[in-house]
């Protein structure tokens, strides 16, 4: 049960819209057919991040303080870099104006629950174009369907268990190709463009073009059950029934890594779009994190008591938290902060979720039996209470995916495919130079060349995506040691304090010693001072908290209450 | 040729000697003749210098040696100076002094020394000359970007002032216009006020100043009146007067307030806040509590003195008045909102009607495992009489604690939150057979749980332990609530009914019963628990009755079988935890450095089977390496983080600290901002990646001349004045620039040649 969180690392969404109450009248939904900003000024749209206000700028790393006795050159270098980064941040904040689109959510009447509103009602109430986004494809013959949307959200790829594969421009309902591979289809996935897709068939992995012509049969990749495509690395990661996790570089057609996980059948897979780490769910309730550079798992965490059924990763850089949502056989749904590897909250779904999917705006959809539930505000710290929307289908749900930049949730099930309208799901502002839903053929070609030029090497995949901007400590230390040995002194060492010679008997040994002591361990002193202050503050807080706890939220003034 | 000339000169000399006496006419003629001859020869003759020596006979060709014998003394010369009237006294005096001094001049220094001195002076001069380049060189080194050739005319749009300044009157029409403009004293260069306007402005300001002054005077007078009045009133000692005054004031205020409520609700609110504040202050202080010195004395007197009693009564009344709570109109709204929250429905996660006796997890109710516990009680709690119940609760707790202790002795302590343990406590009979099988497993589990609890709750306990002392009972109850939670765990409606009585009081006392794993509960901040309470309020019993478009599917027979198998699988996963613990401990052990044993048995002692090397030897030859830094997952019991270093990135990383940086943190922070266009706006990217040196295509880059930077300095200094003294300044500067350009142009021409 693989879920795919379509979310680019490039557009970072800091706007915490989940907590905003967007008051809109019932059925007055906002649908985001917005090419506006990008059409007007496509290159202006390229920004690092969107900001709510200048105070919430996306601070990149820590600001460096100029040390007290720094050289002139060092001071200048630091000052220049600081000024530059500040300038960059400010500019990015100013460009936030160019992202005018905002998402709205469904709101019921006072006594009405949004989850009781049926799809047909929504489709009737909204405009024709938006209404046409709710549709069903009755494909009962070739049994439960997996699906995948292309990165721009225009094209839909469906693959039936019994071999039926079709790709559709779902907005115009234009069938691009349709075929039956005459084999079991385990998973389907678009590659970097709409021109190619991968199909995991019974034995091998096949790659077809958009016309349905078989391009490759990759026999190195056998018994593939689930696939993930890492768009910025051009890597197709596959998880097989034999327990192998393999990476295929689709730009050069080479197998980058093949890792034997020794964890048995791998049928739960997701990617962390923040750092391109692959998450695998296992029958023993653990979730393991993998990169192609390490033969053993980066992290292994025990998430469920039963087997992990589905997984989904999501990044939300503005709040400096990355999330993973898991559901297991113990019928729990857990939300993890994947930076701290700590669970944020968990809840119990009576039917248990077999499929999960996260939208760009953070709506979580879970397939419980024949019902798809959509939850709002899942990625906050407070647990979910009730679904935001729900939709019943016929037949087992096999695949769930949100369409990028659209308020649409695609559902693949036993009876075919259903496109469901979920207001507020899609990111209304898109990066036209990265994923432009309205791009022309020529633009796509240009983008492909640029993307290939900017391809990220697989060696850079790791838990910390900012690893590259750090000094390689181990070799740095080694080199420094050698340098010290060769020179006979430490060039980076701080100069020893030499007291000035003073006249009139003030340079006596005792006086000098006193002066020396004044400046001794100055750097350490600062640290100690800071840590002591922090500790006292922490203690104070704890004390207050415990006091509150004991008194049960009573203030000191409560004793005077009459 | 030389002998010829000599001959000629001798002849001429002879001639001149003879003819000198005859007259100058002949001489001139002779000269002319000679010149004519010389010109005829075609060769230029050597020009003779004029002679200035004083002699009787002046020759054209050589210095007369006549009178060389007698030297000319200074005194000879000075004699004439003394006589001449034109020379100043000062010079005369100086000359006299010179005459009188007998000192001889010093010997000139020898060559080496003079050269040394000259070198020194030359060095100083050149250093001074070169050092004026120092600044500009430093500046250029620092500069983020250098544009060559220097001193380029900016190609972009110019400022209006620049354009205007450079422009000259050409056509007669323009001339006429300018004449008119100058005639009317209009500003030509800069749009500042005309003199006329300035004058009028000045006049205006005076008037204004007068008005202002008058106003100020008036205000001051009023203030002084008011102050005097206040002083007078303050001096009045009559209490009655003040009372009346205060009462009037209060009445007035109330009236105002009533009005304010209608007209200015915000202001009224503020006033209300003020009142609230005063109420708070009153409640904090002991001012009207009859506990002061005065009050005590009065209390003694009160028995006999009626007025004292009255005064005391008044004080109390005052206190009552002040501490009376304001009625806030928004209260009922609040309640209605709360009610609304309570009735918010929850539908899909309602429990399935089928209850699987085998599976405790199947009885999971709503999104949260526990909210039902309180949700049922939520309404009842409100209706119940709290005071009576509190005692009951305490009794209940005592009983439960005892029960719990007994249970713990009997059973193996299991996880608080895990369903398996809940089963054990709810209906022991059902699971008892199973338990026997899984006993050792459960030991592991319990071990794990204790581990969890210990690790995750360490911090919170530390805090709470410190302050426990005084409020011991409350703390105990809290803990007890957490521990005994399993007992009253409710899984289904039936259970609820049975446990109704038990649940009811519990919910009051212990609202924050975390239903997720203990580990999660303890790791979460305490304020989170409060939110859970809200959640419980949301998930009321009423919620279940909400009409739904559809209910969750009822489990079929086949599916049921499937589910049973799944459950079995899930239960088999119980040793998942122990497996995980084992895995983790294995990893930890692998990370620990091994002790290197270099002892050689039999060296320096008796050897043989069964003999151990002595202690000193073991101590000496067993080498322990330093323990590695603490593992990243040290405090995360359910996570294993690999400690292996990934070498793949290392080849792309910087391994040497570049020059000005002293430590890695500085360098890392300096490169933390990405410069790519993916992360930045276009302008920023351009700015960040601009080249260090820019040259104009085809332009000759001359070496820097001194005038370049000196001039730039002067312009920089005069930059401020430019806006005001626009015309002249600019023109002057341009003149210099033009001349410099000419200069350069000439040089470049030369080079071309």
TrEMBL record, chain A:
Main location: nucleus
UniProt feature, compositional bias: Basic and acidic residues: 520-562
Localization terms from the record: Nucleus, Nucleolus
Entries under InterPro entries matching the protein: BING4_C_dom (IPR012952), WD40/YVTN_repeat-like_dom_sf (IPR015943), WD40_repeat_dom_sf (IPR036322), WDR46/Utp7 (IPR040315)
Subunit structure: Part of the small subunit (SSU) processome, composed of more than 70 proteins and the RNA chaperone small nucleolar RNA (snoRNA) U3. Interacts with DDX21, NCL, NOP2 and EBNA1BP2.
Function: Scaffold component of the nucleolar structure. Required for localization of DDX21 and NCL to the granular compartment of the nucleolus. Part of the small subunit (SSU) processome, first precursor of the small eukaryotic ribosomal subunit. During the assembly of the SSU processome in the nucleolus, many ribosome biogenesis factors, an RNA chaperone and ribosomal proteins associate with the nascent pre-rRNA and work in concert to generate RNA folding, modifications, rearrangements and cleavage as well as targeted degradation of pre-ribosomal RNA by the RNA exosome.
GO cellular component term, pick one: 90S preribosome
SUPFAM superfamilies attached to this UniProt entry: WD40 repeat-like (SSF50978)
Region of interest called Disordered, as start-end residue ranges on this chain: 495-562
Domain BING4 C-terminal: 387-465
Organism of origin: Cyprinus carpio
Pfam families: BING4CT
Protein's name according to its UniProt entry: WD repeat-containing protein 46
Lineage: Eukaryota, Metazoa, Chordata, Craniata, Vertebrata
Gene Ontology biological-process annotations: maturation of SSU-rRNA from tricistronic rRNA transcript (SSU-rRNA, 5.8S rRNA, LSU-rRNA)
Keyword Transmembrane in annotation: no
Record keywords, A-Z: Nucleus, Phosphoprotein, Repeat, WD repeat
Gene3D superfamilies assigned to the protein according to its UniProt record, in alphabetical order: YVTN repeat-like/Quinoprotein amine dehydrogenase (2.130.10.10)
TrEMBL record, chain B:
Family according to the record: Belongs to the UTP14 family.
Residue spans of biased composition, Basic residues class: 740-753
GO biological process entries: rRNA processing
PANTHER family given in the database record: U3 SMALL NUCLEOLAR RNA-ASSOCIATED PROTEIN 14, U3 SMALL NUCLEOLAR RNA-ASSOCIATED PROTEIN 14 HOMOLOG A
Region (Disordered): 1-56, 380-486, 505-531, 716-753
Lineage of the species this protein comes from: Eukaryota, Metazoa, Chordata, Craniata, Vertebrata
Compositionally biased spans, kind Acidic residues: 382-395, 407-446
Basic and acidic residues: bias regions: 728-739
Annotated InterPro entries: SSU_processome_Utp14 (IPR006709)
UniProt KW Phosphoprotein keyword: yes
Any single GO CC term annotated in Swiss-Prot or TrEMBL for this entry: small-subunit processome
Keyword set, alphabetical order: Nucleus, Phosphoprotein
Chain ranges passing through the membrane: none
Protein name: U3 small nucleolar RNA-associated protein 14 homolog A
Compartments where located: Nucleus, Nucleolus
């Amino acid at each position: 049960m693989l879920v795919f969180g379509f979310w680019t690392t490039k557009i970072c969404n800091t706007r915490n819209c989940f907590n905003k109450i967007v008051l809109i009248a019932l059925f007055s939904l906002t649908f985001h057919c917005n090419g506006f900003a990008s059409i007007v000024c496509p290159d202006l749209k390229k920004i690092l991040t969107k900001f709510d206000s200048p105070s919430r700028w996306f601070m990149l790393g820590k600001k460096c303080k100029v040390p007290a006795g720094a050289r002139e050159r060092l001071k200048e270098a630091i000052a220049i870099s600081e000024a530059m980064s500040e300038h960059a941040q400010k500019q990015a904040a100013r460009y936030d104006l160019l992202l005018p689109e905002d998402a709205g959510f469904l709101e019921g009447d006072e006594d009405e629950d949004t989850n009781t509103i049926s799809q047909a009602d929504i489709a009737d109430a909204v405009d024709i174009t938006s209404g046409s986004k709710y549709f069903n494809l009755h494909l009962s013959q070739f049994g439960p369907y997996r699906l995948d949307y292309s990165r721009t959200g225009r094209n839909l790829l469906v693959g039936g268990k019994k071999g039926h594969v079709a790709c559709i421009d779902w907005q115009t309902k234009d069938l691009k190709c349709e075929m039956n591979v005459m084999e079991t289809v385990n998973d389907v996935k678009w590659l970097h463009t709409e021109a190619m897709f991968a199909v995991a068939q019974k034995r091998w992995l096949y790659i077809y073009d958009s016309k349905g012509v078989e391009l490759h049969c990759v026999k190195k990749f056998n018994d593939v059950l689930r696939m993930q495509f890492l768009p910025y690395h051009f890597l197709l990661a596959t998880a097989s029934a034999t327990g192998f996790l393999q990476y295929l570089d689709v730009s050069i057609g080479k197998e980058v890594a093949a890792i034997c996980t020794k964890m048995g059948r791998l049928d739960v897979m997701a990617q962390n779009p923040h750092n391109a780490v692959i998450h695998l769910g296992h029958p023993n309730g653990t979730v393991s994190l993998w990169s192609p550079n390490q033969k053993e798992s980066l992290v292994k965490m025990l998430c469920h008591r039963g087997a992990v059924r589905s997984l989904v990763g999501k990044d939300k850089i503005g709040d400096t938290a990355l999330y993973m949502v898991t559901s297991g056989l113990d019928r729990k749904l857990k939300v993890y902060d994947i930076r701290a590897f700590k669970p944020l909250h968990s809840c119990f779904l009576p039917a248990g979720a077999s499929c999960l999917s996260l939208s760009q705006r953070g709506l979580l959809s879970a397939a419980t039996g024949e019902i798809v539930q959509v939850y709002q505000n899942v990625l906050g710290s407070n647990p979910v209470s009730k679904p935001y929307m729900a939709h019943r289908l016929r037949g087992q749900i096999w695949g769930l995916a949100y369409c990028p930049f659209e308020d649409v949730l695609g559902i693949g099930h036993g009876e075919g495919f259903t496109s469901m309208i979920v207001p507020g799901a899609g990111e209304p502002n898109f990066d036209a130079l990265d994923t432009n839903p309205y791009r022309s053929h020529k633009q796509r070609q240009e983008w492909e060349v640029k993307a290939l030029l900017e391809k990220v090497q697989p060696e850079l995949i790791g838990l910390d995506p900012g690893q590259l901007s750090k000094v390689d400590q181990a070799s740095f230390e080694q080199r420094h040691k050698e340098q010290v040995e060769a020179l006979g002194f430490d060039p980076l060492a701080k100069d020893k304090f030499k007291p000035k010679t003073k006249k009139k008997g003030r340079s006596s040994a005792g006086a000098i010693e006193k002066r020396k002591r004044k400046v001794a361990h100055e750097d350490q002193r600062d640290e100690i001072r800071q840590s002591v202050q922090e500790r006292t503050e922490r203690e104070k807080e704890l004390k207050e908290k415990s006091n509150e706890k004991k008194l049960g939220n009573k203030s000191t003034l409560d004793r005077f209450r009459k | 040729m030389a002998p010829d000339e000599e001959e000629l000169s001798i002849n001429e000399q002879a001639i001149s000697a003879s003819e000198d006496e005859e007259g100058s006419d002949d001489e001139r003629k002779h000269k002319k003749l000679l010149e004519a001859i010389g010109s005829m020869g075609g060769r230029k003759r050597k020009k003779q210098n004029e002679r200035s020596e004083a002699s009787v006979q002046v020759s054209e060709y050589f210095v007369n040696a006549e009178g060389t014998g007698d030297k000319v003394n200074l005194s000879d010369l000075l004699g004439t100076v003394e006589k001449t009237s034109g020379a100043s006294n000062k010079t005369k005096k100086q000359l006299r002094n010179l005459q009188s001094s007998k000192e001889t001049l010093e010997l000139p220094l020898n060559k080496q020394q003079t050269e040394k001195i000259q070198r020194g002076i030359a060095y100083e001069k050149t250093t001074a000359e070169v050092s004026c380049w120092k600044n500009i060189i430093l500046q250029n080194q620092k500069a983020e970007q250098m544009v060559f050739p220097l001193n380029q005319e900016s190609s972009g749009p110019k400022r209006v002032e620049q354009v205007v300044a450079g422009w000259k009157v050409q056509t007669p029409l323009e001339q006429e216009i300018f004449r008119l403009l100058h005639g009317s004293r209009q500003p030509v260069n800069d749009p500042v006020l005309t003199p006329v306007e300035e004058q009028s402005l000045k006049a205006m300001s005076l008037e204004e100043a007068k008005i202002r002054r008058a106003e100020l005077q008036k205000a001051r007078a009023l203030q002084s009146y008011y102050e005097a009045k206040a002083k007078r009133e303050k001096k009045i000692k009559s209490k009655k007067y003040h009372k009346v005054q205060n009462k009037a004031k209060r009445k007035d205020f109330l009236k105002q307030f009533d009005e304010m409520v209608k007209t200015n609700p915000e202001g009224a609110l503020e006033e209300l806040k003020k009142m609230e504040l005063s109420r708070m202050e009153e409640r904090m202080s002991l001012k009207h509590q009859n506990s002061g010195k005065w009050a005590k004395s009065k209390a003694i007197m009160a028995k006999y003195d009626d007025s004292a009693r009255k005064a005391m009564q008044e004080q109390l009344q005052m206190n009552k008045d002040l501490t009376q709570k304001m009625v806030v109109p928004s209260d009922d709204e609040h309640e209605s909102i709360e009610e609304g929250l309570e009735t918010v429905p929850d539908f899909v996660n309602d429990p399935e009607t089928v209850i699987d006796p085998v599976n405790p997890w199947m009885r999971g109710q709503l999104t949260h495992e526990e909210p039902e516990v309180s949700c049922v009680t939520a309404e009842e709690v409100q209706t119940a009489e709290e005071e009576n119940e509190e005692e009951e609760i305490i009794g209940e707790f005592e009983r439960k604690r005892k029960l719990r202790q007994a249970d713990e002795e009997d059973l193996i302590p299991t996880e608080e939150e895990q369903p398996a343990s809940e089963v054990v406590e709810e209906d022991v009979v059902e699971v008892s057979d199973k338990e026997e099988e899984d006993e050792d497993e459960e030991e592991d589990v319990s071990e794990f749980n204790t581990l969890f609890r210990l690790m995750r709750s360490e911090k919170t306990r530390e805090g709470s332990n410190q302050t426990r002392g005084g409020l011991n009972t409350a703390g105990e109850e809290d803990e007890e609530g957490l521990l005994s939670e399993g007992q009253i765990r409710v899984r289904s409606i039936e259970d609820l009914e049975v446990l109704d009585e038990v649940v009811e009081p519990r919910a009051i006392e212990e609202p924050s019963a975390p239903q997720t794993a203990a580990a999660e509960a303890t790791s979460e901040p305490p304020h989170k628990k409060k939110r859970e309470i809200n959640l419980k309020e949301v998930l009321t019993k009423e919620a279940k009755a909400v009409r739904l478009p559809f209910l969750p599917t009822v489990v079929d027979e086949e599916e049921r079988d499937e589910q049973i198998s799944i459950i079995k699988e899930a239960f088999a996963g119980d040793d998942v935890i122990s497996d995980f613990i084992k895995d983790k401990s294995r990893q930890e052990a692998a990370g620990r450095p091994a002790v290197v044993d270099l002892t050689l048995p039999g060296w320096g002692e008796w050897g043989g089977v069964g003999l151990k090397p002595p202690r000193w030897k073991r101590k000496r030859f067993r080498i322990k390496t330093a323990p590695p830094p603490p593992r990243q997952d040290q405090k995360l019991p359910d996570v294993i983080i690999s400690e292996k270093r990934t070498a793949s990135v290392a080849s792309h990383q910087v391994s040497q600290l570049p020059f000005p940086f002293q430590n890695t943190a500085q360098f890392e922070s300096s490169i933390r901002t990405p410069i790519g266009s993916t992360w930045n706006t276009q302008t920023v990217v351009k700015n960040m990646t601009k080249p260090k040196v820019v040259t104009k295509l085809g332009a000759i880059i001359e070496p820097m001349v001194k005038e370049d930077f000196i001039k730039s300095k002067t312009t920089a200094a005069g930059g401020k004045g430019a806006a005001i003294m626009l015309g002249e300044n600019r023109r002057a500067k341009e003149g210099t620039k033009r001349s410099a350009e000419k200069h350069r142009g000439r040089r470049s021409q030369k080079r071309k040649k």
